[in-house]
Amino acid sequence: MPTAARLVAAILLSILGYILSDLVRPLMPEGTDFGWFNYVNAFTGLCIGWVVMGSRAGRGFVQGINNGLTGVAVLFIWCLAIHSCYEMFRLAMRNRYDGPMEAITAIFLIASEFGLLIATPAVLGTAVAGALIIGPAADFAAKRWR
C-alpha cells in the first residue's frame, strides 16, 4: 500500500544511492566502463526505500535512525551483489571460469574486493550521514501524513 513514508524513503534513498555512486567512481581502476552504474544504484535505492524502509517508518525517532542505518546497509549489500554478479557474468562470457561453482564462488570474491575498495571514510561517512537524515525523514512523513 502506498504511503508518504514509502515515497519519502524511496526518493531519498534513491538520491543517496546516486550520490554514493558518484563517490565510488574515482575509487575504481582507471578505464572502468561504468555504463548504467549510477542509475542501477539509484533504482536499487528506490526499491529498498519503498520496501524495506517505508514499511518500517513511523515507530519513533530512534527507530527512524535505526531504520535509516538498516536501509543504507541493505543498499550496500544489494548494490554489491548486483554489481558482483554483473562482473562475474562479464568474466564468465570470456571463459574465465572452469565451471559454474567457480563462477558462483567468484561472486563473493568480487564482492569482497569491491567492498574493500569502496570502504573509505568519504563513502562511509556520506552513507551514515544520509542514513541519519533519511530514517527520521521517513518517520516524520509517516507521522505527518497518515
Could you walk me through the main structural features you see in this protein, from its secondary elements to its overall organization?
Helix 1 runs antiparallel to helix 5 (121-144). 77% of the residues lie in helices and 0% in strands. It has helices at residues 4-24, 37-53, 61-92, 100-118, 121-144. The longest helix is centred in the middle third of the chain and has 32 residues, at 61-92. The protein has 146 residues and is mainly alpha-helical.
Name a few traits of the molecule.
single chain; 146 residues; mainly alpha; 0% strand
Question: What is the secondary structure topology, with strand pairs?
Answer:
Blueprint: H1 4-24, H2 37-53, H3 61-92, H4 100-118, H5 121-144
Helix pairs in contact: 1-2, 1-5, 2-3, 3-4, 3-5
Proportion of residues in β-strands = under 5%
Low-pLDDT segments, ≥5 res: none
Which structural category do the helix and sheet elements fall into?
mainly alpha
Number of discrete helical segments: 5
Radius of gyration: 17 Å
The largest pleated sheet is described as: none
What's the mean pLDDT score? 93
Number of strands: 0
Backbone shape: elongated
Helix content: over 70%
Q: Helix and strand string, N-terminal first?
A: HHHHH
Q: First CA to last CA: what distance?
A: 12 Å
